[in-house]
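Design request, tokens follow.
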């Protein structure tokens, strides 16, 4: 499908489609059964003819610094490598309640679009450089049942600029 859903499951999902329309960013999307793991996304990848990214919401031990790390689905996450690449102290997965309050999503629905909810600019968006080599960016629309395909350059150059989240790029 190339248009917004008829009804929305969350405030974030509605903001996602309103923002894409406003920015004139085209997309393709599919509705699915609940998909939470990267294994769940294999069929979605085939349907949309792209590779889903892995999006992790991380924080420091004091829970005062937050990172939305976007990497390729096949790479294992190593906190030490991530922290070393940014020159910061070790990070861990942020608690589910912080992910919901800051990004407006539940476990399994972490998405770059969550920064629409981050009005205080608490979250640093960090891309694995390998993600930026892909023409297409596959991610959740803020739910665990809606997934979409967007041009990667549109996410980085248009969407993130619009949200005032300038990404950092690291190599792992």
């Amino acid at each position: 499908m190339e248009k917004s859903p008829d009804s929305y499951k969350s405030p974030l999902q509605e903001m996602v489609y309103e923002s894409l329309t406003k920015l004139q960013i085209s997309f393709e999307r599919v509705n699915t059964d609940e998909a939470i793991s990267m294994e769940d996304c294999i069929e979605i990848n085939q349907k949309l003819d792209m590779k889903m990214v892995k999006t992790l919401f991380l924080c420091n031990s004091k829970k005062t610094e937050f990172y939305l790390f976007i990497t390729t689905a096949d790479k294992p996450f190593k906190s030490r490598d991530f922290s070393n690449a940014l020159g910061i102290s070790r990070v861990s997965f942020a608690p589910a309640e912080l992910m919901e309050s800051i990004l407006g999503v539940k476990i399994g629905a972490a998405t770059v679009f969550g920064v629409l909810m981050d009005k205080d600019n608490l979250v640093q968006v960090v891309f694995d450089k390998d993600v930026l080599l892909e023409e297409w960016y596959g991610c959740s629309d803020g739910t665990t049942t809606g997934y979409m395909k967007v041009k990667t350059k549109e996410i980085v150059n248009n969407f993130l600029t619009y949200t005032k989240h300038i990404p950092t790029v690291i190599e792992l």
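Comment from the thread starter after seeing the answer: thanks! The first strand starts at residue 28 and ends at 31.
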